[in-house]
Amino acid sequence: MTNPASPSPAATFAASSAAGPDPLHLPHLWRFEPGVTYVNHGAFGAVPTVVREEQREWQDRVDANPMGFNRRELSRELDEARLVMARFLGSDENGVAFTPNATTGVATVFGAFNLAPGDRILVTDHVYGAVLRNARLAAARAGAEVDMVHVPLEAEGAEVVAAIMSGVTGATRLAIVDQISSMTAKLFPAAAIAESLHERGVRILVDGAHAPGAIPVDLQTLGADYWTGNLHKWAGAPHGTAGLYVAPELRAGLQSFPVSWRADEGFPDSFSDIGTLDKSGWLSAPAGLRFYTEFGWEAVRARNNALARTGQQLIAQALGVSLQGMPGEDVPDYPLPMRLVPLPSVPGEAEACKALTERLGLQHAIEVPVEAWHGRALLRVSAQLYNAEADYERLARTLTQIL
Fold first, then answer.
1. Using CA atoms, how far apart are residues 341 and 201, in angstroms rounded to an integer?
2. What are the pLDDT digits (tens) for 247-274?
3. What is the pLDDT of residue 271?
4. Most exposed: 50, 133, 146, 326, by fewest CB within 10 Å?
């Protein structure tokens, strides 16, 4: 479904290529509030205008005949959209189901995972807060425990694997590992971790919330038992659009939450009919993928990764802080569109970091997160096609004034 009245991304790309030195600086393809500097794509994503228009077309199509669409068209259209998602994620056709977000995917896994008293769940200290809450709740209900291991920010490759495996015991049943950590913008070697955990008989749930679109994802080679990731961050889909992957041998025991009208069809079909929801975001997921495909995924990623690195360096130089020890600092071409800048003059406490985040947003119209991690205040900048160096220069000037 496309809107013929709207110019295609390819047309706007061609016009931009002729107009300036950075053909992939395309802020006009989004609708941001005038005057706002937005360098926090990693938190919620931002929906391109053409994708939002497609979502509204789906909503209009539903409203034109709610009963006819929901009874006779929705399942077929959702199945087609789901297959597009599966191919993009490198999954087999029956490996991925739609969910509203990665947190729901995690909760669904815990709903099916049979924990017993004395079992242990392993997480790292980079774990996303909602995921940790899910793990602790599931453990408490079963009489199990949650163990947390420290993974240094600067650790790479084998060091990360070793740190995680140091927390494995004979009672460890499930490990939860980020593919890209949210708070610390760190890329984890998820495939190597999965291999090592399986050698010890431990299942792995990979939190891929930030992965789709930010990095190439190939679920058939990743080795995860369970994987969940958002398409509304780096893959252009409307908010509330995510995928849940389950290894073939585990699919029979997994049901949607809440229970679906298609429950007897099993995974993944049972996840497509969980009551009356606005599924227009799921139906528009292929439009988000098409949006970035027209520019070329490799070009988009290379541009965003380089810009995030440039922004990180601009801010660090302006503040006179060292980037030593930040994730990927010693790795050439670190492939992430998010980067950290330490703020040593800011107390590494949650309230102080929250106050700075709010001050930047409310007083200076700059949206960027500051988080506390192990007593350090960390600023996380993201880069997307609507960003330019000027965004990070403005943030750097503002920080030098208020810090």
1. 38
2. 999 999 788 877 888 888 889 988 888 8
3. 87
4. 133
Tell me if 269 sits within 8 A of 94, measured CB to CB. Answer: no
Quick check: helix, strand or coil at residue 131?
helix
pTM: 0.93
Distance CA 199, CA 401 (A): 53
- Alpha carbons 366 and 395: distance in angstroms, whole number: 7
pLDDT in tens, 348-396: 999 999 999 999 999 999 999 999 999 999 999 999 999 999 999 999 9
DSSP state of 237: P
- Half-sphere exposure (CA, 13 Å, Cβ side) for 182? 20
Return the SS3 of 395: helix
pLDDT beneath 70, residues of the chain? 1-20
Residue type, 240: G
Sequence-distant (6+) residues with CB within 8 A of 60 are none
State both tokens at 401: 């004034």
Peptide bond into 117 cis (omega under 30): no
Give CA–CA dist 375/377, Å, rounded: 7
CA 98 distance to own-chain centroid: 14
Task: Please give the radius of gyration of the chain, using alpha carbons only, rounded to the nearest integer.
Answer: 21
Closest CA to 232 of 187, 272, 288: 288
Residues 148-177: b if buried by 16+ CB within 10 A, e if exposed: ebebebebbeeebbebbbebbeeebbbbbb
Spatial distance between the Cα atoms of 234 and 218, rounded to a whole number of angstroms = 16
pLDDT at 26: 98
Collapsed DSSP state (helix, strand, coil) of residue 87: helix
> Domains along the chain?
68-288 (3.40.640.10), 297-402 (3.90.1150.10)
